[in-house]
Amino acid sequence: MKSNKDGLSTSRRTFLQTTGVAIASAAALPLKAMADSIETQPFDNGKRDLVIYPQKRPLMLITARPPHLETPFRIFNDSVITPNDAFFVRYHLANLPMSIDLSSYRLTVRGNVKSALSLSMEDIKSLAPAVEVVAVNQCSGNSRGYAKPRVFGAQLGNGSMGNARWVGVPLKAILDKAGILEGARQVTFKGLDEPVLPSTPRFIKALNVDHAMSGEPILAWSMNGTDIPFLNGYPIKLIVPGYSGTYWVKHLSEIEILDHEFDGFFMSTAYRVPATECECVPAGTAASSTHPITKLKVRSFITNLKSGDVVRGGQPLEIKGIAFDSGTGIKSVETSTDGGATWSGATLGENLGAYSFRAWSTRIIPSSKGDLTILTRATAQSGEVQPSKELWNPGGYMRNVIETISLVVA
Ligand SMILES: Nc1nc2c(c(=O)[nH]1)N[C@H]1C(S)=C(S)[C@@H](COP(=O)(O)O)O[C@H]1N2
Ligand SMILES: [Mo]
Asked: Which of 77, 96, 171, 308 could form a disulfide with 27 if both were Cys (CB 3.0 to 4.6 A apart)?
């Protein structure tokens, strides 16, 4: 898509050109529920309508208000980079901007700084040389629908994640320009979306000053070589490589530097995990103490086969997949066809950087007819390995148990 100056308006035009359907409100309504188009997740109440939103191909509808769309899993087999039009969408608040005019858009910086700032898009772009990172954005609750026992919250399959090439300037550059004063503790981030009711907390996230100043988080304006799609955070999205998607604030408009720990709802109440070593508790129990969710945990998936597929015995079967961790990089991916008793290594694909999905592939020759279960397990460069048992927590966050698919050999 060409660079669009007015975000949604351009996407609306694009949509109108391709389908000729008028749109009342992108935020409130799926544009078109595709008749007969339903995806079924392999857990109870797993039926999902496929719907089209601006700049998006048909995605699975989780909620319409606010818009919450999930990527059908088979898309992850097409490429290691998730296309913009297939990338999942998650909002907490239903009062979204309907269009964003770049000529009036400003990003403000205030609080414990030498000089408060109000920067235009051009100002942001000229803060520092642009940097690029390929990084996975995964929702904390990705795969929550598989939790046993089940937990409250959106019953997500494995499609609330995506991998993209982000371009922007380091967050550090804007903080340096403002000049952080002694005693600063945390930096908060807010976007242009607002609650519908005054009693609903605004979506504000916080990072510690050290992390904000590390050079890693990026104020990105480009996703896979083009403007960030409106619903993924146009015109600026905070990229926090290796960290849970909840920190990747969209439509970023306000940065504040605090001399204390931020205690807003989305840090102090939501998105918290048990403060135990595994960040888990015995299934079905409450956590006595918690801390904010932080980094992604190592995961791997098979992308070219799914449970129920029928394969031929006695001939090579290619198994392809993806793996990622919090940014130490993937050391190995292994598969097992004997329930985890023995493992054999897969071949890793091109390395797009330690924060990216890493492709992998291997071959097996299924011999005996009947059921064939394949397990996949990734190990990160840090030594972190996927657990063989689900690490349960009340929020259903950070699922990373070894994945299993069950095939039929004919
Ligand atoms: N402004 C804003 N940014 C936000 C959110 C939000 O509700 N509002 N949700 C966060 C959460 S929980 C996730 S998982 C990611 C999802 O990013 P995406 O919609 O681009 O896939 O956005 C994050 N940034
Ligand atoms: Mo999320």
From this structure: 96
In a domain, residue 285? The reply is: no
The reply to whether omega before 149 is within 30° of 0 (cis) is yes
Q: How much is the pTM?
A: 0.92
Q: Which atom of ligand 1 is nearest to the CA of 88?
A: 21
Give the rounded distance of the alpha carbon of 127 from its chain centre.
27
- Top pLDDT among 254 and 15 is at 254
The token duo for 347 is 């071949």
- Closest to 261 (Cα-Cα) out of 329, 186, 318: 186
Q: What's the pLDDT score for residue 37?
A: 85
For atom 19 of ligand 1, the residue with the nearest CA is 89
Mutate to test the pocket of ligand 1, among 91, 247, 254 (most ligand atoms within 8 A of CB): 91
* Ligand 1 first shell, C-beta below 6 A: 87-93, 137, 139, 191, 193, 203, 232-233, 245-246, 248-251
CA-CA distance, 163 to 166, in Å (whole number)?
Answer: 9
Total domains in the fold of the chain: 2
- Quickly list DSSP for 192-252: S-B-SSTTSPP-EEEEEHHHHTSS--EEEEEETTEEPPGGGTTT-EEE-TTB-GGGS-SSE
Ligand nearest to the CA of residue 205, numbered in listed order:
1
341 in any annotated domain: yes
- Provide the token pair at 94: 């239903």
CATH code at position 89: 3.90.420.10
Is residue 286 a part of any domain in this protein? Answer: no
Ligand 1 closest atom vs CA 229 = 20
Atom of ligand 1 nearest to the CA of 190: 1
289-315 pLDDT, tens digit per residue, is 999 999 999 999 999 999 999 999 999
Domain containing 250 equals: 1-270
